[in-house]
Amino acid sequence: MTKILIPVDGSDYALHAVDYVIKNVSVLKESPQVLLLNVQWNVAAGNVKLFISQQTINDYYREQGMAALQSARAALDAAALPYQYHISVGTPAEAIAQYAHEQGVDQIVMGRQGQGGLQSLLLGSVVNKVLHLANCPVLLVK
After folding, report:
1. Number of separate domains in the chain
2. Is-contact 53 100, C-beta < 8 A?
3. Residue 83 carries which DSSP code?
């Protein structure tokens, strides 16, 4: 069975990738295993843990991750396409490449850009880093 990873950050670009997979699933011989991944930036650095409990931090990651996954999950549910989802914490590109490797993903399908603005200018493009780090084909969807 083909495994397709769709990194989702809550942006319209990520939803375009989900829609692409839904529309093109019929060309595959069998229904793929779809994996959704949301990566939350690690905010619990330095002295943060002195003031905020780990449980509160974990709840924050889960809440933000579930919000980012909501539209993608709704689209896959509406298409009756089964999927699994995971929320990871770390640096997005590295976390995406690592998760793809751990899960034995055949292809990563992602939007050509995500939420970013100034942040993506300062940190470099997550897409470019994924292209460099991934061990499998990466399909970029406009």
Report:
1. 1
2. no
3. E
